Structures are given as structure tokens and as C-alpha cells.
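Hi D.,

Good news: the full-assembly prediction came through. Inputs first.
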Amino acid sequence: MSSNLIALQNKFLGQGTTVYDRLSLLHEEQGFISDQDIQALADQYNLPPAHIRATARFYDELGRETAAQHTVKVCMGEACRAAPGGGCSALEHGLSEALGVEMGETGAHGVRLDHVACLGYCGLGPNAMVDDLPVSMAGENAVSAVSDHVLHGRALSLKEPQNAIYLPEDGKPCVLLRRLTSDVTSLERARAAGAYSALEKALNEMSPDEVIQEVEASGLRGRGGAGFPTGIKFRTVAEAEAADGSGRKFVVDNSDEGDAGSYIDKELLERDPHTHLEGLLLAAYACGAQEAYIYLRFEYPRAFQVMANAIQEAREAGLIGANILGSDFSCQVHLVKGKGAYICGEETSLLRSLEGVPALVSYKPPFPAVKGLFGCPTAVNNTETLHTLPWIVEHGGDAYAAMGHNRSKGTKLVSLNTAVVRPGLYEVELGVTLREVIFDLAGGMAHGRRFKGVQVGGPLGSILPESALDTPLTFEDLDAAGGILGHAGIVVYTDEDDLVKICRGLMAFCAVESCGKCFPCRIGAVRGTELFDQMMSPEEGGVTPQRLVLLGDLLETMKVGSLCALGSMTPLPMESLLNHFPDELDRYRVPGGNGTSPKVTS
Amino acid sequence: MIARANGITRPVTVQVDGRSVTVEEGTTVLQALRSVGSTVPTLCYSDRMKPYGACRTCLVEVEGRKPVASCHTPVAPGAKYRTRSPYLTKIRKNITELIVSDHPLECLDCTANGRCDLQDLAQEVGLRTPRYENPRTHNPPRDDSHPFIKLEMDKCIGCALCVRACDEVQGSFILAMEGRGYDTRVIAGNDTGFEAAKCVSCGQCVFECPVAALEEPGTREFGLPDTQITTTCSYCGVGCSLNVNVKDGRVVNIEPNRLGSANTGHTCVKGRFAHQFAHSEDRLTSPLIRNDDGTFREASWDEALDLISTKFKEIRDQHGPEAFSAISSSRCTNEENYLMQKFARVAMGTNSIDNCSRVCHSPSAYALGQALGTGAGTNPFEDVFHSDLIVLVGANPTEAHPVFGSKIKQAVLAGCKLIVLDPRNTELARLADIHLPLRPGSNVAVLNAMQGVLMDEGFMDEDFIRQHSVGFEEMKAEVEKYTPEWAAEIAGIDAELIRSAARMYGRAGTAQFLWGLGVTEAGHGSNSVFAMINMAVMTGNIGRPGAGTSPIRGQNNVQGASDVGALPNVFSDYRPVTNEEARAEHRKAWGVEPPSNVGLRIPDMFDAAHAGTLKGMYILAEDVAQSDPNTTHVEGALRSLDFLVVQEIFMNPTAEFAHVVLPGTTFLEKDGTFVNSDRRIQRVRSAIDPLPGTMVDGDIVNTIARRMGVDLGADDGPGTPVNPGKIMDELALLSPKWGGVSYQRLEEEGFLQWPCWDPQHPGTPVVHAGGETLRPDGKARLTPTPWQEPGELPDDEYPWMLTTGRQLFHYNVGTMTRRTDIVKLAQAQEETLRIHPGDARRAQIRHGEMVDVVSRRGQVRVRVEVTKATNKGTVFMTFHFPESRTNILTGEAVDEFTGCPEYKVCAVRLEPVSQGEVQNRPARQTVEVAARS
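Then the structure:
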């Protein structure tokens, strides 16, 4: 459907410029996109207004039609839901009262209260975003500090929080965090710490194919969740040809880390942007791409700023652009800001977003590696995956493959939420058990709470019970245990957390974030949310055998029928609920009910 | 959709429901399973569009793997697919349950009842009532703004077929899915409703809707149709195949035929929605005979036909055959046109028979015939998908030939390059890689300069020229005189644009010229066509798919009317009336000696009438008083005739001059064939009975002949109706290129593209294969095309160039479209004079004002529309509106080879109308010109 629209954009906006770019620019300027703005763009560029409108209204940010003087957005990530003191729902209530405005509305005073997807401060929640600044709302006076600022014009006394980062102990493998012993955000300091030496090595001493061979030897698998072997992906892109004969190829960095509970990519981008760019350029060199895109969500404003500066520095130093480091290799890097749609973390949706058309998921095959951005071969890789490449080029694929366990090689970053004593970001060798991560590294349960379950891999991950704590953190072992490694955001639930409520929230998240294309996800997530509401309401009869059968049918239909992982994996935590935590449901049974929850296999 | 890796496909063998099938690599599982007769339900799939993968009801099981959606999954070698199982039924039922949970259960009140894909699916999987309690459903407002397309979003299932149809088939991008997730909804334009969104009303969205979220008029008023008839559209030359839905002898609505070869399941607003004229109360339903006082009285068929046969005999016998002429109709069938020319030649003994191609594409037919040996386009419509470059000259197909226009648009958006030569900033001009906004009348200058560039800069295919052409040196000698700078001066454009266009043509591997009346009616049309053919021959762009030189014919059967011999100089298949072999065959078949002197062409007929040598005329369905140029001259001619018979479906300005008016029938009431623009012979089938009081046109001609004692061999005996199949057999016998055409083959094969030499010949989509032309010597003739000024140029008194053309919503003089619901569309209300904003300022006229447009021949009053769609210096009007009578303005200059008039080049001045004058003017005339009895 979209290829015609892309052709129109190319004709009327210029090659590679998109409606999304125009809308984003306008939104940066004025903070909203009105109907008149859409018509004006359509008239100015001779483009169909329906297309511009559909593109704009796909995104939470571009969907806003009116201006607000201040916007306060409450983080809705799982970690914030499970944060102490009632989590984000208590915060939402408190802010609504203090600001005198309902959720989703703009008050007469010009203050808007809204939701925002995970801000990536999962160890410090609950959190909020005041205009463009993320702040921790964990402190007692946070709500009044916000209202003083937005209602009374006082300076905001809250500061942007800082996630804790724990480097591996001496002697343990350290790949991704290795340069974080000091501030390496500037090009000068990064180069002093060794950044771009791998790129230099590759350009001077290695052919693109040799780079791919090292990546293949490393056994590196994609860190975004799917775990696809990175070397195979690069080789596919390197060998594919654009169908239009243009010879164009792309590398796309998926920094749309929307998984609630994950702040892995965020920290890498904010703290070590040049190693990241180096990884991106190595990927482009290996694949034969002339252009690279970084797609970075707006919920990470600091990361965006840091990356923008880094790109600027690198460009001025001849590390980006034509004939990089005096070689034949040329590559442009574009930094694109996401505008609030979780689904854009799905690779085909992300590509549609970059193409400027509504970011609906596309079926695969054709895979992006063969037919991706603008129809050309495209390597879409997660931030952390790219960040690993300089190390592999420096030390060789075999050295990387020596780390890890089984078919899960190397190290992985994990992030933990406030339920543990030392929430933060850790680099671990794959194969470490969940118990070691939660109870040894992170110090075990905080605030005297008891462990109930752990959700690994974001909102689409299963919730594993205590019995699974000795599962090694690898793709294979977690899969065997009925879970996923995913992107390895870890959210620990405690005895204070109501998993039925959590699952309801996850279903509602799917309903809000569904792109709306495939029927099982689009309709199913709404029905599922309603079903949870009915099961949680004594007035409506609570949990009944019929409702559990219907829920089971729905989960199976979404799993089998959905087009992408959002619809097909949202059922995983709910299946965990039915299988591992049946007692949680018992609380919602109304006397007189006669059923027991059925087992659902995953 | 077959994916080809590196252009090579391998066969893949899979099993479907236990049966083995081998298909091309890249074939989808759905295509594979259908090929062995298996089926799966689909709600979001249409074979006209790319797979979408939304509904997921087409899931199939794969042995040892997870189920896959069959519509978009390519077959995997060795895979075993299962399309039915209790498990699949369960999943499909669960999906259906989800859909139905957000769909009103009002089947009895729904126009899709009984032909709803969702209803069928629910029955197939055994779904009764969804188990979901109190589901939140959508209840958005209805969009009733459009007369033909109603949107009821609460019924929408979100399959996006409508949006994709608007994008992938029509190419208008009016529709989109707005929002995300459950609240995703269809919007038109900037969510302004269909009408305000400037929807082109092709109706494809309604056609593709699997439920009744999009609804068209018809079923709700009349009920479900009882019959569906497949026929061919009678509007433009695209030749769309239509399915006419009929109930109780009345047309309920018309849908595209998915199997139609020319339209591949697409239609435009006219073919789809503008059919109500057939049942119009304005229809002529009785013969009318002129009283002495000039009024008409109703008469019986007997009386009228007797009068005509007597008068025709009188004219023939008293004044000789040359005192009679006939104008046949490109609106009627081949069989009727064949009868008409046979009537003139056999019953009246004259070759003075012509058809309206005289005033449109006669230069195309002439030049193509001279240079390549056949008077028709060289390549089929679908070849736009095989071209690297299309050069579109003087044509606005997205309005005048919308279904073909959409194909061009799709090809261009898919990467085909486009050059447009047009004084107007048309939709395709805006999409073009190069637009040359040349002055009306300057075509030959620009095309000559382009030839020169091709020659100078070495873009010639010398081998091709040597092997396949004659006349190179003569052409070269002429072309050498012209430079881009010289042409640029005449055309008012930049010389570099001309150079770039020529280079783009020279560099393209496969390029084709397509043109419209902006070539043939714009001054020295034949030379323009010769120039394009020269360029195609010079670069070897002849006789290959995607190459060639093809006119886009204006009327449904204007190609056919000429093909079957309704021309003064040729029999059917363009065989000269002077050719002895052809004469002998006709003599044998007809049993009489055909007249041998070339007859009168249409403009000559009017001159002869003025001169008094022409006494009688028989005009079949052609409103010459309105559509031919220089209306005053035409009217004078008609007035001076002793006897004029006009056969029409409505009273019109021409019929006003008739002595007898005969009520004919519409295409919906008759059987026969049409030939479309790319030589496709297709069946026309009667969907409804002739309106009481009317007669099928062929039967009228045949009966007049019978009453004159002449048997045209068209019926199965005296008193029987015309047998069109029998006429086709005679036509095939006398026309070598139609030798293999028969009704039986047309029924079986759907269409045949002539040349079709014999019953075994498959027809010829691309003529002149391999550069072997149909000229006797097999060579293409390169023709010198000397520049001459157009017959009319602006001066101080008449400073503006008026050019004319069609708009999307109307057809020709509006006889049909203005009697349909099309007039409910705001965009189709009234004639306007379109003028560029800068020019409007200069002329001191404002948008919406009335203005008098004055040419050297007459003046009309019209409202002003200020728009950038028209370039500076040129103003534009259509000729659809009887009340503004555009052709009062147009001129008498004609093409020197064919007599085709220069409608497109007319110098005018604009005179603002004072406020008082406008108010005093009577209200806009209505279209009705009622019969006075």
C-alpha cells in the first residue's frame, strides 16, 4: 500500500524527505498539529491530506491537536506501575487533583495531563515528564513541586534522575560498559578511551566480508528480543540488491526501546554515544550501506541530545560523511525522533515510520534485510547489538564467542526495577541465573517485600515464578522455561503487586499500542481488557469458568493469529498468570462461582 | 504477485490438502491452494491488490510448523498445507467472533445481506452470538455527503480494502486509516467527508468493501438484483467491462467486471454511476415528425419509417446518390455502424458516410495508417507497466479516460518516467518528470525540435532505421531545419526543457508515445502524429511491449466505427473503396456494385448542404450542432437540407433541425460489439429491454432498408430483428484483420485484439512485432513534418488562447451524464472558464464572476474559475454544457490531410459582465430540450 505514497513524497517533497519529517519539524516548533496544519501541508506539497492526517494521528505526540502551555505526562511503564507508594496510578490521581485537570485533558489554565510510555527510569519510579524533562516523582513533595512549576511559574525543583550503573566486578567480562569508567560523551574523550579504533582497523585492514566473518564467528545474536544471528543478517544485506536497481542499502539502529522496565539502550546512548556510532558505521561498512538511521524515541530526550551532539562532532571530524577516515567508505547518519508509538520498535513498523507512511506492521517475508527501507536491503539492529560490534572487531569474533553459554554468546545488559535493593543497569555474561542477578548482583528484595514473580523481556515477557529462578539467562533456557530473554529488562513483582491487575494493564497496553492492522490484536486486546475488567469486578460476576475459557480462547487466537510480536506475545504474561499464579485469580472469584482456572500451555 | 529473485524463478512443489502442486517460487500459499481448488476464507484480500495480512482468517496449518496466513506467505519447498481442520475452524471462529463483537447485528436491514463476506464467514465457522459481554463498539457518524458513496463506520471491519483500492487501483489517495489500534477508522481527505475530499467517485472502495460499511445507491431503493449482465461501457474509449445489475427490468446499479481485460475490475464515476439516463423521463419514446410550422408531432413507427423510406428513395432517384449522406455513430455498435455504411453504399449508392472520428482522431488513424500500415494504436493499455518512459502529449487521461489514467498513474508511481506535453497543468503533468507547458498549436514545432535533438545527439537506432524504415533522408532534411531554441520561441517554453525531454526519450530503453485530442485537434494533427511515429521508429521503439505510438481514443466505439467502414474513402478494415480486390469481394458479398468515388467527409457535407448539392442526411446518434466546430455554420447546413433524419435517445440541438426524429436505444438495451482504444473487440449485451416506443438502432436502419426494398443481410428474414452475430460474420469475411473474429470466440475468450487474421489467430496486443510493420513493404515510413502555423493565432483583439477538453464528471455534450445522478456532485454543476491566477489579474476578472468569451465566430457567457491547473496565456473550457455552447467559439481551420478541426486552438477575448447584466439574465437554462408535439 505504501509504495505509491513514498513515490508521491519523493516527487513532491524530494527524495528521502517524508511527511513524517515535515510533521515532526512542525511539532517541534509548536507542540501540536492541527487540522489546518495538515491541510496547509497538503496544499503546499500537493500531497493527499488523508495520508498526512493518518501519518500524524498514528503517533501520540503528533496526534495532539491543540497547544498546551505545560504538559505533565505520567510514565505508565510496568516498573512505575509496580513502584512503591501505589505506583503510577496513585501518582496520576495525585497530579490530577493538584493540577485540577483530568487525565488526557487540557485545563483552562493551559496545563495538560497525559500518559507517556516508559521513560526508562525504572529503578527510580514513579516518574513523569514535565514538558520535555523526565523527573522522578518518588519524593514526597514531587507533586507539589510540579504544580508549583506549571501553575505558578516557579522554577521546577525536580531534577532529571540518574539511573545507577554497576560495572562488572574485576575479572568478569565487560564488553558494553567497558568505557564507562569515565565520562566519554565527547569525541575527544571517547577517542582517548579508544573509540573509533575498531572502525579504523576495519577500514584499513579488513574487507566488509571480513567484518561479517568476525561477527558470524562471534555468535552474536540480536539484542532487541528476537535473537536473530547478526552475522547472517549482515551477510543477507550485503548480498541482496535493491529491487529498483539503485544499489542503495541501509542500516537502521532501532533505539526505540519501548519495553517498559528497560533502560539499556538509553544508558548506552547517553553515556557512550561514540562507541555506538562506531558500531553503526561498522555495520554500514559490513553491509555496504551508504546511509544509516538512528530511530530514537522522544521519551529519551537526553539520549537524543547526546546523540545529536555526537553525530555533529563525528561529522566535523570526518567520521561521518564522504570518505570516512580517508577510506573509500562513505556513510551518512540520520537521527530521527520517534513520536510516541510503542509499535515502532517492531522493525517493519519502524521502517514505515522512517518512510513517512502510517507505521502499520508489515508481514514478513520479504524480510527487511532483502526489502526494507524504501524497498532496499536494510539491516535493522538493536542499539545494544550495534554497540557490541567495535569490541568484536577489536578482539575478534572468537574472543566474543568464548563468553556466554550454549548458543547464547557474549554478555548482556540487564536493567532492574525498584523492587530490588540495588536497582540499575548490569552487564552480565549470558548464562548467569535469574537468582544470581536478582539476589546476588542486585541485593535481593528491597523494603522487606517478598518475591512473587519476575517478568523478563518487557511487557511481552512471561512472568516467571520463584521455581524458575535458577534458569540461566540465555535465549534457549528461558525459552525452555516458558519465558523469553527479550531485551532483558527485568521487572520483579512482589507480594504487594496484584498480578491480575498487572496483566490487565499489559492487555490495556497492547490495546493502546496496537497498530490496528491485524484483527486479533486490534480487537482482541480491547476485548481482553474488558474481560479483565469484568473478572475484576464483583458486580459484574468476577472470575467465572466461562470467562476463563473465553480468555483462554482469546489468548490462543492472539498468539496464533496476530501479525507481529505485540499481538502474539501479549498473551504470554497472561498465560503465566493462569499457569503459575492461579491463586491471584481466586481473589476475584465471587462466592457461588464453581470453576477452577484451566491450565494453558504456551 | 510473483517474487522474482534476480529475475529467475524456480518451480516449488508443495502439498495442499494432500494434493501435490508445483508453482513458481514466490507464489503465495493462497494462490497455490486456490490453483488446486481449495479455498480459505479471506476478508482483507483482493486479487487486484497486494496482500495485506490483516484479517488472519486465511490461516492454514503447515505440517511441523506454526500456522501461516496464506495470503502473504510464499510457498516453502516441500511444505504440506492444510486448509481445513477443527483447529483452524476454531481459530477462524474466534477471529470471526472478535470481528462480529464490533459489528452491528442488523443483517436484515443491511444492503450486503446475502452477499456479505463476514456473514458468509460466520455461517461457515458456525458462529451465532459472540460470547463477549457488553463490548465497546464504534458508533461514529455516517458520512452521507456523497451521492454515490455512503460510509457507515460502525459496520467497518478495518480491512482497509477501500483505502488500498483508492491507492493501488485508482491512485487518488482520498482515503486513509486514521489513528491507531481499535479506534483506527477510515477517513476521506482531511476527515472532511467524501464530497469535500474531492473524491473522484470511481466507486472502487464500495466495490471492494466486503461488508456494507461503504454503500452505493441502488439496492436500498430497488432491492437485490435478479439478473447480472456483463457488457461494455459506452462512455470513453477505454472499454471497461461492466456488470449491470438488473431487477424487474430496471438497472439497479453497475459494477466493474473483475475479469474485464481493459479495466481489470476498475471503473470511473461515469461507467459506474452515470447510468440513470437509460431510464430518464426525457428519453424519446416515439418517432417525431416535423409539422409545417416547425413543431414536432408524435407519429407511429409505421408512418415515420414509410416517410423516411419514401423520401430517401426520392432523393436518391431524383437527385442522385450524391445528394445523400449519412453520419454514423461512434456511440453505436460495430454491427450498427457496419449496417449504416452498408445502407449508404448499398441502399443509397453513395460513399458519403462518415463518423465523428473525423473531428477527433482522424489524423491519428491517417498518419498511423500511412506510416505503419494500420490506423490504430500499436500497443495495449497494460504496456504502460512495461515502459521505462511514457510521453503523453495533449491528453488528460485521468479525467477523460480515468481507468487508463489510473494505470498510467500507477505505472509512474512504480517508477516509469513521464514526460507531458500539455498547455494545462493536469494531474499527470504534476506527476511528470518533465512537463512542457507548450502553447496550443505549437505541437509540431516542439516535436520537430525533439526529432532534431535525437538526430544531432546520436540517439538513433541506426540498425533499426536501416532494416525497418524508408524515407529517412527526406525526413532528416526537413528535421534539420528545426532547433530547440526555435521551437521554444513558438511554444513559449524553455529550449532546455525540449532538449531534456528528447534526451530522456532517447535514453529510455522502452518508451511509448500516448496522445489525445490535444494533438489531433490542435493544428496540423497529422504532422504531429507523423513526428511522434518518426521518433519511435528512429529509436527502435516499435513492435515491442512497452514501446510504440498509441492514440487514446475518445469514444467507446470511435475506433470500431472507422474499423467497420463508416468512412467515405474506405470499406471495413480500411480497404480503399477504389481497391479492386476489395471491390470484388464486396460485390460478391453484397450482390451489388459498390460506389467507387470517394464520398463526402463531415465538414464537406455541411459545405455541400450550404451549396445545395446535398439534399438529405441521416444522422445516427451524433449531435453535430453542438459538438462540431463553428456551430453557426453547422446549423445553417442542417437548416438548408430538404430532409434530415436524426436518430437519438434524447432531443438535442441537432434533432431540432430534423424532419423526422427516431427514438433509438442506449447501449444497455442492445447487443453487439465495441472496439476500444487498444483494438479490443468486446461484446455489448442487452441488460434491459428497449424502452417502450423505442427501437434498437440497428433494427431501425435495417427496417428502413427493408422498406426501401433492400436486404442488408442483417436479419434472419423479413420482419425478424437484426442478428448481430450474423453481421459480425460478414464483417469478418470482408475484413482481413478481423478474419478470426466471431461471437463464439468473443463469448469464450472475452475479447480479441485485431489484427486477428483467422479463427486460430490469438489476436495481436502489440502490432508491428519485431519492427515488421503492416505496410505492404513491411517498413515504417519516416515522414517529413514541416512546421506550419496553426489556423488561428491570438492578436490584440483576441489575445487569449482558448483550448477545450473534458472534465471527469461529464461526457461530451452531456446528453447522458447530465441526465444522471452525476449532477448531484458539486464538482459537476456548471461550465467554467479556467484561467491562471496571474492571467485573471491581468484580465481583471475574479473567481466566480461571469465573463463573456468572444472569438472571431461567436460568443458565450460562462463563470470564471481561477486555477493553477491552466498555464499562463491559455484559458480552458469543456464542451459538456449545452447552455454555454463552447463550440460556438471554435474555428473552421482544419488538418490538411484529414479535415479534423482545430478545436483546441481558438483565439478569444474575455469581457467582464457587469453586475446588472448578470442579474437580468434568465436563470441558467436547464438541460431539457423537451420535444414539442
